[in-house]
Amino acid sequence: MMTLAVKLALTGALVFFMSGLLTGVWKYRCIMASAEATAPYYVDIAHRASLQYSFASVLLAVLAGYSVFPEAVNAAAMIAVLFFFAFAIITYLIHGYLRDTDNQLRQPHVLGKSVIAGGMMRLSMRLLILGEIGGSVVIGLGAMMGIWGG
């Protein structure tokens, strides 16, 4: 039987993979329309990150299938990881669409014509780090315990 965490991860993998394919079309169209044959920086980042996160989600699905932790723990950890994968991609899509920066971490932190407070940017990055790494550690630890009989 497939657990909720595995279902979530595989659903995320499909969503991120489709995002990668669609942003690839966007990237291609930008390259073809550009005199320099380039796409906006964050269109390229969104394309690559989407594909990478899709395969990371498949890895997490496999690991979750071996985890000995309760289903609720694995599902919560998976939701955290997938949420922050999606958060990152959405941020890249917005910057790609707005063409407002080639480095979202450069100060001042711009979003279109607005400026994001440095404290908000640091908080969002810390939460992203905690969510992605923390959730992955939980799923990975549960899997290693299941695989190695710990």
Contiguous helical run count: 4
Q: State the domain count.
A: 1
User: How would you write the strand order of the largest sheet?
Assistant: 1-2
Percentage of residues in strands: under 5%
Q: For the residues shown, what is the average pLDDT?
A: 95
- Tell me the distance between the termini: 22 Å
Helix share bin = over 70%
Order of H and E elements: HHHEEH
Spatial shape? flat
The whole-angstrom Rg is 18 Å
The number of E-state strands comes to 2
* Low-confidence residue ranges: none
Please give the largest β-sheet. 2 strands, antiparallel
Class derived from helix and strand content: mainly alpha
Task: Record keyword descriptors for this entry.
mainly alpha, 4 helices, two-stranded antiparallel sheet, single chain, flat, 150 residues
